[in-house]
Amino acid sequence: MYKVMIVDDEPMIRQGLQSLIEWEEYGFHVVALASNGVEAIELYKEHNPDLILVDIRMPIMDGIRTIGELRQLGSKSRILILSGYGEFQYAQQAIRFKVDGYVLKPIDENELTLYIEKVSKELNKSQQEAVISTQTLALLREEWLKGFVEYELQEAELSLEHWKRLFTHPYSEANIILLDTYSREHSLTTRNMIKQQLSSFIEDQKWGYVFSTDAYIGILINQVSMNQSKKERLNNIIELSCNQKAQFVAIMSATHTDLKALYEELVQVKIALKNRFFMHANDLFELNEIKLAHDFDKPELPLSVFIDQMSQKLFYVIDVGNKTMLDELLDQIADLLRNYCETEQQMKSSWAQLLTMVMNRISAMHPQLALEDDLKLVTQLYLTHHYHLMIDQLKLQLTSLMNRLTVTESTNTTVMKQMIDFIDRHYAEPLRLETMADLFNYNSGYLGKMFKNHTGDSFNTYLDNVRIEQSIVMLQEGYKVHQVAERVGYANVDYFHSKFKKYKGVSPSAYKPTSMSKKSCE
User: Fold this and answer.
1) CA distance 329 to 322
2) 344-365 and 372-380 helices cross at what angle (nearest 10)?
3) pLDDT per residue over 25-47, tens digit each?
C-alpha cells in the first residue's frame, strides 16, 4: 500500500477527502492528516508518504512554502495541489516544485479519482523499474562475487570503481566466509534453503551479502568488525540455517583494507576447506587458526613401523580391558598420525591398516569369537566426514569389542591376576615390565614390587619360567630347538639355551622325545 497525507486547514475537507475516495482500491491508505504546513513537515518526517494532497492557502505556512520545504528535505513524494479558482495564478508557482496535478475546489470526485488513478499507475511502474534495477544489480553482484571466489576476475573487475558500481559505496575493508555444507542426503534444495536463511540474517544485520558458487555458500562481510561475539552469533545462525539437515565447516578470511589482498587470500581459504575432515563439524574458523599439514612435526619412524607398534599397543590395551587407557591411546594415535597423513584418504587408509592388524591379532588370540560385525568398523571409517567423529566412533566400537572379550572376567579380578593372565597369553611377544606398567597405568618400579610380592618372582623371572614351561611342551611335541626358541619369544637360540639350562639344569634337547618313545607311540 502507498501512503497518503492530506494537508488542509479545514477539518471538514480533511475528513471528507479521507472518506470521499476508495483509497484502497487504488493501492493507497491515508496515514496522516495535517492542518498546516508546519504540522505537515513533521508528519512527513514520521511517515514519508508517497502522495501528498496539499491546500494552497493555509495559516502559519502556506502550501507553496510547504512544498518547497518538502523538496529541500529531499522528498520525492507525488503532490496534488488543492486550490480555489482565484488562486490559480498563485498555484502556478508550484510548477517548479514538480507537482503532479491541480484540483480545484469544490473538489470534483471524478477529477480527483482520475489523478489518483494516474499517480497509482506511475508509482506502480516506478516500483517495478526499481525492483528490476535492484534485481539486475543483485545478479551482477552475485556473478562478481562468484568470480571473486573462483579466481576468475580480470584486473579491471578488481578496481575500486568497479566495486562502487556493484556495491554503491566505496571499498574500505571486508572479509569473506566460505561455507562448505554436506550430508549423505545433500540436495540443491537444502543448500538454497540454507542460503536464503543466511541472507535474511545478514541483510537484516546489514553485515554484507550472501552468495553461492558451485562448491560453496559465501558471505561477504563488509565494513563490519567481526569480533568474537559476532563470530559466535554468526556460527549459531549458520547452524540453525542448516537445521540438522546438513553439516558445515566455515572458514573466514582475515579482514583486508586492500581488495586485491582479499582476492589472493581466498586461495588459502579454499585449500584449508579441502582439509575440512580434520576440523570440527559445525564450526566457524578463522584462517589463521587452522593448522596446515606443513605445520606438523616430522615423524621419526616410518609410517609402517609406527602402525605396527601402535597396533600392538592397541591390541594389548583391548586385551587388558582398560577403557580409560583405550580412549587415551586412541587420542594419542590420532594426534601422532597427523604427522604422517596430509589428506583424508591417507588418514583413513592408515587407520584401516592399523585396525586390520589389531583385528587379526584378536582373531588369532580368540578364534572362538565372531568378529564379522567388528570388521565392519574398518569400512565404516570411509563414511565419516570428520576426524574427531571417526575417533569417537572407534572409541565406542572398540569399547564394545573389549567388553565382549572381558565379559567372563570377575569384576573383582585384581591387577595381578590380569597381569598374570596377560603374560600367559602373550609370553611369546617381547614383553617388558615398562609395557605392563603403561597398560595398567602404574609406575614400573612400584608394579614390579607388587608383582614380586604376589608371585614370589620378579617379572622377568616369571616370564622366563612361563616361556621355559611352554618350550618343554613344544619340545615334547617334536619341534626343533630353534623353532621352539622363536615360538616362545627368544629370537636368539643360544640365549634360549642359556636360559633353559639356568632354569632346568639341562639343555633343551634333553626334553626331546627319543626314537624309542616315538616307536612305542606308533
Assistant:
1) 10
2) 170
3) 999 999 999 999 999 999 999 99
